[in-house]
Amino acid sequence: MPVNKDTEKKAWWKEAVIYQIYPRSFADSNGDGIGDLNGIRRHLDYLEKLGVDVLWISPVYKSPNDDNGYDISDYQDIMTEFGTMEDFDCLLSEAHEHHLKIVMDLVVNHTSDEHAWFVESRKSKDNPHRDFYIWKDPKKAEDGSDALLPPNNWGSCFSGSAWQFDKATGMYYLHCFSKKQPDLNWDNPKVRDSVFGMMDWWCKKGIDGFRMDVISMISKDPSFPDGKVMDGLYGDITPYVCNGPHVHEYLKEMNTRVLSRYDIMTVGETAGVTVDEAKKYASSDGSELNMVFQFEHVGAVPGKVGKWTDEKPSLPVLRKILNKWQTELEGKAWNSLYFGNHDQPRSVSRFGNDSPAFRVISAKMLATCLHMMKGTPYIFEGDELGMTNIHFDSLEDFRDIESINAYHEYTDKGLATPEEMMRYLNELSRDNARTPMQWTDGKNAGFSDGTPWSRVNPNYKEINAEVELADPDSVFFYYQKLIRLRHTTPVIVYGIFRPLLEDSNEIYAYERTLDGDTLTCLCNFTDKEVACDLCSKDLGNELISNYKEHVPGALQAYETRVFLKKN
Ligand code: TEU
Ligand code: CA
User: Ligand 1 center to residue 343 CA distance, Å?
Assistant: First the structure.
């Protein structure tokens, strides 16, 4: 076994653990039922106790909240519901006092249609801001009628056409997401100047980095060709908006003009990214970003309609994807590690088992599987408590534009029955991750004194931070131990990843090696005890496990064990 010398370049963001906060659902300080900045400030002690290093905060800028803040109307002001810029400045300084860095969510593929740039752009064809966005003439109908058709057949990620007709100038504008999220035209150098200037303004305030929303989409195919029709409705935009012709050029420019001037961390949310593209976006040469989020594991199960399905990924499928990313980026680019975020269902419900018998044990196993891998781990708020999906009884329970639009589009078009869509939404809706954080077993789970904007999961009586902090064997303290291990065990951060037991249908196993140290991670992904010969080998000292007692030569239901054999 070649002993790999620790040649990996050291960096703080490689050794860090990131905690994602969705402010709307984290903590409400003023009783309006909506989480806010001062609510986050109240829980910095909690986050420092968990041991995380960085807080990635979903967008807090001014926004009409068509997509809960991912539609920004002023990049340099704070959303009224979340507080003031002064509140933000206090949060930033207090976070730093708690040894927590703050990474902002940068949404610059599109703005809100209420942003001043778009308000100007739509006024007239010769407005100075016209080309800040992507405007196209209507297409003539082939039947010779005078119907005005969209420029091509592209579909929006939030259902419907990706083009919105604007009467004032008789043209269509592109919106890959909602109608209120017009795409910026990154081919316009004035857009790049404005975005880079704004980013520099935030860096000068002392933030510690950016998570870049759909940054792989900022360069479109200039021919805007029709896409392959999906579900008999609209053309697939992915091949023409992801990883486009100038995306790496623009990110290199961003790096030169802003990022390289500060000691900050950057992670790109790169919809449609491949391993080869990731090697450019997150190249070890530091010319673009530090790391990227890939989507293959969370998109592993093909949707029955659109992305929607009620099927869960199998271990062999999940392992093949994750192992590919671990081995193929080795030495070339840095991985982000995640099972959940504000766009995904709760990880213990999707990849583990959220039944009362197995929720805790499988949440710990999943966390171990992820945190022992090579890359920077991301914890989504509440995953450290083992929070689960909520059961939605009716469409009225949902708040997320993606879910609501998909329900109407697919049932209206007869592509799914209401019952099927409710099953799919219960499995995958982003609202599953956006239920209020469960702090206590008191009113509204301690999230708010008012009426929460989204329903609290009824299981908050049993699952909440207060209960977790009172139980040394809780998911919270297990996460704390995983984080502490990462901070004190170099092989976990820098060790080379090697898959083990690749043919097993039950066990996910791998090893990490560094300077002669070998860490072995074993995870049983099933609710049954399974034989595990590897457990009987001399793998060194056990670093962590979610069971106190073990069965020789076997792994119990959802059992994980990590061993370290020192050089
Ligand atoms: O999400 C981008 C994205 O790819 C989404 O379509 C996501 O994959 C999908 O919702 C998963 O089902 C980013 C943000 O994370 C998301 O919250 C925003 O809604 C979206 O961009 C537009 O800004
Ligand atoms: Ca509030």
Answer: 6
Which ligand is closest in space to the CA of residue 40? 2
Residues 104 and 242 in one domain: yes
Q: 419 and 385, same structural domain?
A: no
Tell how strand 135-136 and strand 171-174 pair up: antiparallel
Best of 57, 66, 156, 157 for a ligand 1 pocket test (most atoms within 8 Å of beta carbon): 157
The answer on 167 and 95 residing in a single domain is no
**418-428 and 401-412 are packed helices; what angle lies between their axes, rounded to 10 degrees?**
160
* Nearest one of 365, 360, 298 to 506, comparing CA atoms: 365
Cβ atoms of 519 and 564 closer than 8 Å: yes
Tokens describing residue 488: 């004190």
Which is catalytic among the residues 213, 288, 381, 431? 213
Query: Max CA-CA distance within the chain?
Result: 78
State pTM to two decimals.
0.98
Give the pLDDT of the chain (567 residues) as one tens digit per residue: 444 555 678 999 999 999 999 999 999 999 999 999 999 999 999 999 999 999 999 999 999 999 999 999 999 999 999 999 999 999 999 999 999 999 999 999 999 999 999 999 999 999 999 999 999 999 988 888 888 999 999 999 999 999 999 999 999 999 999 999 999 999 999 999 999 999 999 999 999 999 999 999 999 999 999 999 999 999 999 999 999 999 999 999 999 999 999 999 999 999 999 999 999 999 999 999 999 999 999 999 999 999 999 999 999 999 999 999 999 999 999 999 999 999 999 999 999 999 999 999 999 999 999 999 999 999 999 999 999 999 999 999 999 999 999 999 999 999 999 999 999 999 999 999 999 999 999 999 999 999 999 999 999 999 999 999 999 999 999 999 999 999 999 999 999 999 999 999 999 999 999 999 999 999 999 999 999 999 999 999 999 999 999 999 999 999 999 999 998
Spacing, Cα 25 to ligand 2 middle (Å): 10
- Pocket test residue of 60, 183, 214 for ligand 1, highest count of atoms within 8 A of CB: 214
Q: For ligand 1, what atom is nearest to the CA of residue 158?
A: 6
Write out residues with Cβ below 6 Å of ligand 1: 67, 70, 107, 157, 177, 213-214, 269, 271, 307, 342-343, 402, 430
What single string gives the DSSP state of each residue in 430-476? Answer: GGGT-SPP---SSGGGGS-SS--SSPPPGGGGTSSHHHHHT-TTSHH
Counting the structural domains of the chain, the total is: 4
Residue 1 lies in a domain: no
Task: Name the residue range of residue 169's domain.
Answer: 116-174
* CATH value at residue 143: 3.90.400.10
Q: Is residue 449 part of a domain?
A: yes
Secondary structure E strands in 178-290: 209-212, 229-230, 234-235, 265-269
Length of the chain: 567
Given a contact cutoff of 8 angstroms between Cβ atoms, the answer to whether 3 and 515 are in contact is yes
Query: Which ligand is nearest the CA of 58, by number?
Result: 1
Same domain, 359 and 407: no
Cα 79 to ligand 2 centroid, rounded to whole Å: 11
Q: Are 159 and 77 found together in one domain?
A: no
Q: Which residues have CB less than 5 Å away from ligand 2 (the ion)?
A: 28, 30, 32, 34, 36
* Residue nearest to ligand 1 atom 20, measured at CA: 70
Note if 126 is an active site residue: no
Q: Looking at ligand 1, which residue's alpha carbon is closest to its atom 4?
A: 271
